Structure formats: C-alpha cells, structure tokens
Amino acid sequence: MIGLFDSGSGGLSVLGALRARAPRADIAYFGDIAHVPYGIRTQEELAALTVAGMSVLQRMGAEEIVSACNSVSPVVLAGAAGDTPIIEMTKPTAEGMQKFRGKHVLLIATPATVTSEIYERALANVVALDSLAIAELAGAIEFGAGDEEIARIVRDALTARKGNTYDVLLLACTHYPLVRDTIEREAEAVFGTIESIDPAEFVAGEAVRVFNCEGGGVMRFAISKDSDQFRKRIGALFPSARYTIEVL
Description:
Blueprint: E1 2-6, H1 11-21, E2 27-31, H2 43-59, E3 64-67, H3 73-77, E4 86-87, H4 90-96, E5 104-109, H5 111-116, H6 118-122, E6 128-133, H7 137-142, H8 147-158, E7 168-171, H9 180-191, E8 195-197, H10 200-210, E9 219-223, H11 228-237, E10 244-247
Parallel strand pairs: 1-2, 1-3, 2-9, 3-4, 5-6, 5-7, 7-8, 9-10
Helix pairs in contact: 1-10, 4-10, 8-9
C-alpha cells in the first residue's frame, strides 16, 4: 500500500495525478487538518508533525510513502520516515524541470518552503529561479475561501513581482493546483503569458516508476480533524471511487 501524507487537502492534487496513472494502486492518505497550515510553522514543529504523520500512515499499512507537502520536504529528506521508502516533492520536480532548462521561473509556495531554500538547491543550475512566499494562500484554500478571496491573496502577492518577466510559474505547494484556474488568471494579468507547472505530475510519475502500484484500487483516508471541505473535495475529485474516511 502507498501512503500519501499532507497537512490537509493539498495532497489530493498529487493523489489525483497518481490515480490517473495507477488506478489499481492501494492508497492510504493522511491529512493533518488539525495542524494546517504547515507552511507558517517552524522547522521544529514540522519535524514533530512529520514524524507523527509518517507513523499514522505506517499504522494504516503504508509500505511506501509519498510526502505530498513541500513544507516538510527538508524534514523528510533528513530521514523522518525511517527505513520506509519515500518520495518527496523536490527531487522529481527538479528532474521534470529539466525541460525548462535556462528559463526564468517564479516559484510560489508557503513561507516554510521558501525559507528552507530547498528548491533553490534542487533547481540550481537548471533554471533562473525567483521564489515568492504567499503566507495566507494554503490556509484559505484548505478552509474553502471563495474565488474572490483567493484571487485577492494571489493578486496582492504577485504584484510584488510586477514588472519582472517569467516563462514559468511553479506551483510549489500542493494546495495551489486546487485553485489553479484562479492562480493562472491572476498571473497572466500581472505577467502576461506564463506557463504554470503542477509538480504533482512529476511526483506521480516517479511513484509509478518506483512503487508497487498493483492492487485493488483501495482508498483509505484518515484525517486528524473532521472537515466538510475535505469530504466535499474527495467527492468532487473521485466521484465514482469507493473509499473510507476515518477521523483520528
């Protein structure tokens, strides 16, 4: 069974990409909604939450794990999952971004991801990278803010880079693809034509390549706090799927 770990709903974007490639894979998903958003937390807090989240997935039967949260990537790379094979977001993204070699890229992410500079290291000598933290966005998405509020948050953030020229917008928080249309619309208003990239595609491709994706298509969800928004998102993303949701 493959485990997916995220602070909340963001990892559903990765799960969607994985299910599209491996519909028979058995999946255990843990969303730590009680502690979302992760992106404004300290590295010490993230370390403790990541270890706890990995333990939940292991108890659910996960033998391989996708860490679908960019904010915890440094912790994951430091060995938070123990001996369990794990894929985090940055390495597959760096490989996938090779096709944009030399391009000017604006990365948007949580403060924790930007502060860690993990993408700067992963994409060094690949692209010309400019990173922009958007503190409010992941939480607003998680708790179901309306399109106007999401657009305002994105617009206010991107305006800080107005006048710059970019080829690519890298969505380096797994929550962001859940409102991709709004982000793309606001980015084009500020920068003109720009291509957005969802790293979930790169990560799902790596999972299919190295993990066991054969099974009965089981999906088991566990969340640390109940959320109508989370339940609605699963129903919208996987309308014909059979699954269970457990509140821990």
